[in-house]
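As a warm-up, study this chain.
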Amino acid sequence: MIEFSNEEREKFKDYLINFFNNAYGGNKFSRKDEEDNFNFLKKYSYFVKLSYGRGIVSKIPWIIFVRMDTQEYKASYGVYVYCGIKRENGEIIVCIGESEDVIINYTAKNKVDEYNTKFNNVAFNYLNLNNDIEVIVDKIIENMQWFAKLPLNEIQDRNALSISNNKEIRNNENEISNKKENQNPPLNQILYGPPGTGKTYQTIDKALEIISKEEKIQIPSKDDRKNRKELFDEYVKNGQIVFTTFHQSYGYEEFVEGIKPIINNDENSQELKYEIKNGVFKELCDKSLKNYISSIQNENETDLDKLIFEFANYINQNFLDKGNEFPLENKVNVKKILLNSKDEYRSFLLGGSIKSPQRLTIDVIKRDYLDFINGRILSFKDIKPKYDSQSDYHGNATYYFMFYKKLKEFESLQNEKFKIKKDNLKPYIIIIDEINRGNVSKIFGELITLIEPSKRIDESEGLKVTLPYSGEKFGVPKNVYIIGTMNTADRSITSLDTALRRRFEFIEMIPKPNVLSDNCEGVNLQELLKAINTRIEYLLDREKTIGHAFFIGIENLEKLKNVFQNKIIPLLQEYFYNDYALIDAVLNKNGMLENVIVENKDYLKNMTEFIESDKVIYKFSDSQKWDEATFKKIYE
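Now compare it with the structure written out below.
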């Protein structure tokens, strides 16, 4: 909690007035002034930087209040108190971060004369104290309190963005921010990096970012993990997010479709049958396609699938199941409703006065019915032959026309029941953990092409393939998103399939030491992780560094010992193929490994030709003896 005492507040007010009066007059204060006048802020974990700008803004003074644990960031994220920027009434601006800095730079670059005019006016207004100094001090304290609660990882992320785009973003951040806001999230992305960098953890955030963007909803902030996870679980429950993990035995049958055996038990015998079962990805695509079709349909149109299904049920329940045929007109009846191999309605068998019963398929009904209700089929003569024919109309057109009239009567009695209810387009997301551990070519099969953005359904180069088991035409809808994770340190797997690699956007996840504690019972976990990773990267490569997640939540030496004994050291053994000399070098010879003295060398007397003269045998020391100095030795 930041609360200035009355004495501190009065001293602070006097100094602000003195600073700006002198600064606008060209008298710059020194580092000693910073120390003398703002020393009391140290107890609130802040320090002060005085700045007078550079180049065209060199006459603009401002004060920056910086949180002590953020001083390593070059952009010096802190609470910035700017002056010299005019708003509606020429007030001094009190703000957070570098948002106002962007306005200074952008204005100075593009509107020099106008800017200088505004600057002089603002300076004049301030010197005449048209601003309320009490309000300014209150605002500074409020902003310092807000900034004190901001997680370090969020500050680091913002800072990294600022530095990497320094020249362009800082001069026109608003424009770039708008572009980023309007940019669609990638359809296919893979988070890759060494173990412990939070790849799987981040998939939840990536999925919610997609949902937030596409469904225009507000999601909890990143530091509200509990509510983020609860929201994520809701979308998993309603089928918009699915999670799977690839492994060496994972196949096409689990991912797309396959044949599943079913034993049908009855009283006298057992019968083995096989059914085609959809895999996790095909199921998700089927759901997303229904939503996509519903989102682009006209709300005034009829849902033909639902209408035909309900009409068939009506005929079955009220006529056919009771032994009666359903009458159309002129003694033409529906005799039977035929099913396909999946027990779905396939066609209506028309008979009665017809000498040879005729089948009216669902496909033909769908082809003609909308034209019928919209007035484009006014008589049977408007129902054209399905194939090229010398006849002007279909041979069974009179029977079909009778059926369509009955279907329309049935629809009109249902009071808008079959009108399409248009859905909002929703994203459907599959998260594939350890995507490079499976045989990608085998798992994706012909889908390897279909997941490309340009090959999605209804895109300019959209494609569909015929699936091998069901024979269905299948494509990937444009509202399906794939998020994968890839552990770059796993040497037990082959490199990711090149065909898949070029269809994904890759986002590197690197260790973030700054999110760790700098005082775990005297041990600086940030420096410890940096030291270990610097040596690993030098001896091996950056893909086998150690992630910060191993040290999240480590609050005492006992937990730190357990992490090293059960996770870090086994990982180093794997990385260096049990070359303990290299492992000892990575640990900076901190005592976790110690030389083994062979007590009875007589056992080795006949092995001299096989033994190197400088051979050293290592063993791990007792972890209970590890102390603060053991861990500090890694980075000191």
